[in-house]
Specification:
By secondary structure, the protein is α+β, with helices and mostly antiparallel strands. The protein has two domains: 265 residues, no CATH class; 202 residues, no CATH class. Strands 1, 2, 3, 4, 5, 6, 7, 8, 9 and 10 form a ten-stranded mixed β-sheet that branches. Helix 3 packs parallel to helix 12, helix 6 runs antiparallel to helix 13 and helix 11 runs antiparallel to helix 12. The radius of gyration is 27 Å and the shape is elongated. It starts with a helix and ends with a helix.
Length: 484
């Protein structure tokens, strides 16, 4: 093996080992979420697409000037390491509620690999792969998941969004000219969507990961291989045909030390801890309205179809307006029967309830939400009680949330009360849009989490929701014939 090849392989192996040290928790989480059927499984295709495009770009003769400044390499690489540490150490905790939706840790991992490549290979050689580095930014986890939702939220939608990634990777791989890049992208898109259509008809119940990986990978390699063979008609078709030049950055001990220091620092940052684990209730059947407990009755009921875009084609979001049969002076001194709004989201893709927080369907851009208070609802079920203050409507809400699941499905229950006890009181309405959530994320980014959090909550209906929640749980479990 030639020395340049050996040195390149050793440095790449070192970067891979350092990345594993720094982001072992992120990689474990990525594997677990993919196995659970999460949309984030597309990231394996992203890694494949990046490697594919990088190999293709590496085959081209370098055009950068033979000017290499190791001091500049160390400075720039060090700044990129600082960016990775700040993202992982600050933003990860700030956006802990949206962790599975944003996966900021994967951006930090990409920044770390970029910094390590700069200090070990040099800024100029790395910059030759600028479009390859930009590829993951074109479809970050949030953008990918929004694209899937806009396309319908189905398995085929997840595959179609993945084909877009394959088209971009092919354009980079074959793009010696703009014309070849356009031909590669359009061909990959057409062939990938054709494969996807066949797959959707012939095997509609295949794993979501198969939809994400299969059509995109096949189209990417078919188009790139075809263009490669077409460009070399009548010529030798050797994959590694260009001369491998010696590496310009021969002294890398300072870069190795800097990379190890950054990896050690990043390894100390832990991922946000998951919320309250769902309670297993094997005998329950989800996807249908809840039964009102004794002393309460269902006043109105509505179903929202758009929830399927977020939680799968069989998902159901049902809103029930449940009103007390009689007034209780403990909950209202003026003798008005209290109303509790019950929103239940049932899904046969339980991981989606973790990826999309309970606040996603509601406009929380004008609200400050308190930290959760744990409530024992009996039967081993723990709920989270939060208080939301809407500064625009001058109203406050108490919200009690819990999740229960069986072998193949899960349901999130939200009980909402408002401090206006009149019959026409305004409750937060599920909207199904991402706009308000994105505005909230920007506020948190630029102004800190204090703009959306309430440090001094006033739980006015904690007793009401606790008593109602326990009665509601008892009623459902009794109907299911299960007592825990």
């Amino acid at each position: 093996m030639h020395k340049p090849v050996l040195r390149t392989a050793l440095r790449c192996s070192f970067i891979a080992a350092a990345t594993l040290l720094a982001f072992h928790e992120s990689l474990q989480s990525l594997v677990a979420t993919t196995r659970a059927g999460g949309l984030i499984g597309y990231y394996w295709l992203m890694l494949l697409a990046v490697a594919f495009a990088a190999v293709a770009v590496a085959r081209r003769q370098p055009v950068e000037l033979p000017i290499y400044d190791r001091q500049t390499d160390i400075i720039v690489g060090g700044l990129v390491f600082v960016l990775a540490i700040l993202v992982q150490g600050v933003l990860l905790e700030r956006y802990s509620l949206y962790f599975l939706l944003l996966r900021i840790d994967l951006f930090a991992m990409g920044a770390f690999v970029l910094g390590a490549s700069i200090v070990l290979f040099g800024l100029r050689p790395v910059s030759r792969f600028a479009w390859v580095w930009a590829l993951p930014l074109l479809m970050v986890p949030l953008a990918y998941q929004i694209t899937v939702i806009l396309l319908g939220g189905t398995r085929a939608a997840a595959g179609a969004a993945a084909v877009l990634i394959a088209a971009a990777a092919t354009a980079i791989a074959v793009g010696r000219t703009r014309r070849r890049a356009a031909i590669g992208a359009v061909s990959t898109l057409g062939i990938g969507l054709a494969f996807l259509a066949v797959m959707a008809v012939s095997m509609p119940n295949a794993a979501r990961l198969a939809f994400q990986m299969g059509p995109a990978t096949l189209s990417m390699f078919i188009v790139a291989g075809s263009l490669y063979l077409h460009a070399r008609r009548g010529r030798p078709k050797r994959i590694l045909e260009r001369t491998i030049r010696p590496l310009t950055t021969r002294q890398v001990w300072a870069g190795i030390a800097l990379t190890l220091a950054a990896a050690a620092a990043l390894s100390l940052v832990h991922l946000p801890k998951p919320g309250i684990a769902p309670t297993w209730v094997r005998a329950m059947t989800f996807g249908q309205p809840l039964t009102a407990p004794a002393g309460w009755h269902v006043n109105a009921e509505r179903e929202y179809a758009w929830v399927r875009r977020f939680h799968g084609q069989r998902a159901v979001l049902i809103r029930q307006r449940i009103v007390a049969d009689t007034a209780d002076p403990r909950w209202d001194t003026l003798g008005r029967p209290r109303t509790v709004m019950v929103d239940t989201t049932s899904t046969w893709r339980p991981i989606s309830l973790e990826a999309f927080p309970a606040t996603i369907p509601y406009d929380e851009s004008s609200s400050r939400i308190s930290n959760p208070r744990l409530i024992d609802l009996g039967h081993g079920i723990t709920g989270a009680l939060v208080n939301a203050v809407n500064d625009k409507l001058f109203l406050s809400y108490d919200i009690l949330i819990w999740t229960w699941r069986n072998q193949d499905s899960a349901q999130r229950v939200m009980l909402i009360s408002v401090d206006n006890h009149d019959a026409d009181a305004q409750f937060p309405e599920p909207s199904g849009g991402f706009g308000a959530t994105l505005r909230t994320m920007l506020d948190v980014l630029f102004r800190g989490s204090t703009v959306t959090s309430d440090r001094d909550p006033a739980f006015k209906d904690a007793g009401l929701l606790t008593e109602f929640g326990r009665a509601l749980v008892d009623t459902q479990l009794q109907q299911a014939g299960q007592s825990q």
